[in-house]
Amino acid sequence: MAHEEYDAVVIGAGFAGLYMLHRLRGLGMSAVVLERAGGVGGTWYWNRYPGARCDSESYYYCYSFDRGLEQEWTWTERYPRQPEIRAYLDHVADRFDLRRDIRLSTTVTGARADADGRGWTVTTDTGRDVHCRYLVTAVGCLSAANVPDLPGLADFAGRWFHTGAWPHDGVDVTGRRVGVVGTGSTGIQAIPVLAAQAAHLTVLQRTPNYSIPARNGPLGAGEADAYKADYARIREVQAGSTNGHPFVVNPQSALDVGDDERERVYRAAWERGGLRFRASYADLLADEAANATASDFIRDRIREVVADPATAEALLPHDHGFATKRPPIDTGYFETYNRDDVTLVDVRADPVEAVEPGGLRLRSGARHELDDLVFATGFDALTGPLLRLDPVGPDGTALSDAWRAGPRTYLGLAVSGFPNLFTVTGPFSPSVLTNMPTSIEHHVDWIAGCLEHLRATGRDRIEADPAAEHEWGEHNRAAAEATLLPRAASSWYLGANVPGKPAVFMPYAGGFARYVATCDDVARGGYRGFRLSGSRAAA
Ligand code: NAP
After folding, report:
1. What is the mean pLDDT of residues 190-219?
2. Which of 171, 332, 406, 528 could form a disulfide with 192 if both were Cys (CB 3.0 to 4.6 A apart)?
3. What distance in angstroms lies between residue 131's CA and the mean position of ligand 1's atoms?
4. What is residue 1's predicted lDDT score, i.e. its pLDDT?
5. Is residue 186 lining ligand 1, measured as CB closer than 6 Å?
6. Which of 162, 24, 169 is nearest to 98 (CA)?
7. Rounded Cα gap, residues 87 and 85, in angstroms
8. What values do phi and psi take at 440, rounded to 5?
9. What is the SS3 assignment for 219?
10. Any atom of ligand 1 within 6 Å of the Cβ of 377
11. Residue 536 pLDDT class (50, 70, 90 cuts)
12. Which residue intervals of 173-217 are DSSP H helices?
């Protein structure tokens, strides 16, 4: 059967896929988006767990590419809830008339490069396969769920869920004994909400976490209007930042100020709430002693909030410094442990041995009776979504073979041996260390510019050069090692949460603005580090 032919195929209809389609249309290219879900939204389609909301503030966790869109959409809370972000992305899909080129409920089952590396055949579970010149993965960094391989799970008599595949009708836990495994950003958002409804909540904690109060609240019309009026400046600050957030990091060292002054700065950041706490001092992620001042401050706050000293002690993170793992923000997380109907269990000291029909059995023999089990156990991050697609290059090499020892990419945008494949926010790009829409827009714009260049110069094949890729990998390693980030041994940035995953620090830690400058420079230099060729090339 003849395949349908497109200039480009995009996999995924979240923030990245929607904008990529819009840009491809703008270039006059034919394109289709293939999406596994029954709607647009990507991560915000799937993550419907109780308490799901964004940790970036609404006024900048959104697209910046269209001034009209910026002005007409009004966010209602400081941190948008999952349904509000989904509504926003639905609005974007309608406003830019994207839906006619999005194929929902379509899972990609394979992607194979043509022998000459000038195209891709993409197969799907609907049987409607497509062929394209360029393949763009817009599959997100956190879309492959990580469910622990616990013996006995199949025999559990209750219900179990992963937060990243939450039932669309919601889950009523009224009157039920619920167990939550995991205290990352997701668990920390879900735990207070589940505790308020369940008869009893048991939290199974492997690694205690730092968390900063979100201080969420409604966004008044005045505030929303003020942000709208200020977008030109806000976007400029984001573009020049380390993390794509619109705030400037205090250039001082935490060690260059007196104890009282430092305490005052941390108190103010704690009261203001949110991820901006990280911007309190310039060296929080560069110097262990500086980091310790923030870590100590947060541990003191946990001790203050949690009434039972033994529970407070068990909640104190000691194995990593603040923000060396992605820091959660919360609404009433530590306060939840003051409830009589919440129990904290340390599964680092006493791991889960097996799931039994009636609950969990720990190594010590202790049992926890449960009706529902919630896995807030995170994702096979960054590489997982790409390896699940497992594209096959022109010489028959699968990505899973090429990445056996860990990922390698050029700029997080391309992989040698896989021509005409672009990976939006792939490994070794700033991605999860940044405000995601900011990184996504940058990648999509860069890819669009590259496709324009290929067309203008009569090229139809682009492939990362292995030497440039190697150099970029080394630069990534050095950038990460210049920070404290790789020292958090249990970090998903390193793949440590997935048994057997190669320990490679995956996001680019050199900073967003520096990364953008590098990508611009590569483009200006005629796509240095890429091999460009074309059946129609003039020279
Ligand atoms: P996560 O940060 O990887 O946390 C997973 C939790 O499950 C950790 O506490 C982990 O312990 C625990 N865990 C994993 N496997 C386990 C096992 N076999 N036994 C016991 N415990 C286990 O995942 P997440 O909370 O879903 O968050 C992932 C990322 O998604 C975040 O860091 C953030 O970037 C993003 N996110 C964003 C938002 C937002 O902006 N609204 C909300 C949620 C998530 P260890 O630490 O010991 O591995």
Report:
1. 98
2. 332
3. 37
4. 54
5. yes
6. 24
7. 5
8. -65, -50
9. coil
10. yes
11. low
12. 185-197
To test the pocket of ligand 1, the residue of 324, 361, 492, 498 to mutate (highest count of ligand atoms within 8 Å of its CB) is 492
pLDDT tens-digit series, residues 272-331: 999 999 999 999 999 999 999 999 999 999 999 999 999 999 999 999 999 999 999 999
366-369: long-range contacts, CB 8 A cutoff, minimum separation 24? 368/179, 368/202, 368/343, 369/177
> Judging by DSSP bridges, how do beta strands 31-34 and 421-423 pair with one another?
unpaired
pLDDT at 316: 98
Model confidence at 507, pLDDT cuts 50, 70, 90, reads very high
Residue 323 carries which side chain, given as an amino acid letter?
A
Instruction: Give yes or no for residue 74 CB within 6 A of ligand 1.
Output: no
Q: Which structure tokens are listed for 92?
A: 């974007």
CA distances from 411 to 141, 343, 506, 534 (A): 15, 45, 12, 22
Q: Are strands 372-375 and 421-423 parallel, antiparallel or unpaired?
A: unpaired
Distance 187 CA to ligand 1 centre (A): 7
Cβ–Cβ < 8 Å for 57, 84:
no
The CA distance from 280 to 282, in Å, is 7
Q: Taking each helix axis from N to C terminus, what angle separates 82-95 and 15-26, rounded to the nearest 10 degrees?
A: 10
Q: Report the C-alpha gap between 496 and 320 in whole angstroms.
A: 13
The model's pLDDT over 220-256, given as tens digits with 9 standing for 90+, comes to 889 999 999 999 999 999 999 999 999 999 999 999 9
Q: Is 425 in the pocket of ligand 1 (CB under 6 A)?
A: no
- Residue pLDDT, tens place only, 76-97: 999 999 999 999 999 999 999 9
Residues 40-52, mean pLDDT to the nearest whole number: 97
Report the distance separating Cα 78 and Cα 58, nearest Å. Answer: 6
CA of 223 to the centre of ligand 1 (A): 32
**Summary mean pLDDT of the chain:** 97
Angle at 230 between CA 60 and CA 72, to 5 degrees: 65
pTM exceeds 0.90: yes
Predicted confidence band of residue 539 (pLDDT cuts 50, 70, 90): very low
Ligand 1 pocket: which of 185, 211, 346 to mutate (most atoms within 8 A of CB): 185
| Cα 287 to ligand 1 centre (Å) | 25
**CATH superfamily membership of 4-144+380-538:** FAD/NAD(P)-binding domain (3.50.50.60)
The structural domains of the chain, with segments of one domain joined by +, span: 4-144+380-538, 153-375
Token reading at 138 = 């817009």
Is 172 buried (19+), middle (13-18) or exposed (0-12) by CB count in 10 A?
exposed
CA–CA distance, 304 with 260 (Å, rounded to integer): 19
Is 287 near ligand 1, meaning CB less than 6 Å away?
no
Q: What does the pLDDT look like over 355-383, one tens digit per residue?
A: 999 999 999 999 999 999 999 999 999 99
Tokens of 408: 């390698």
Cα of 374 from ligand 1 centre, angstroms? 12
Residues in the chain: 539
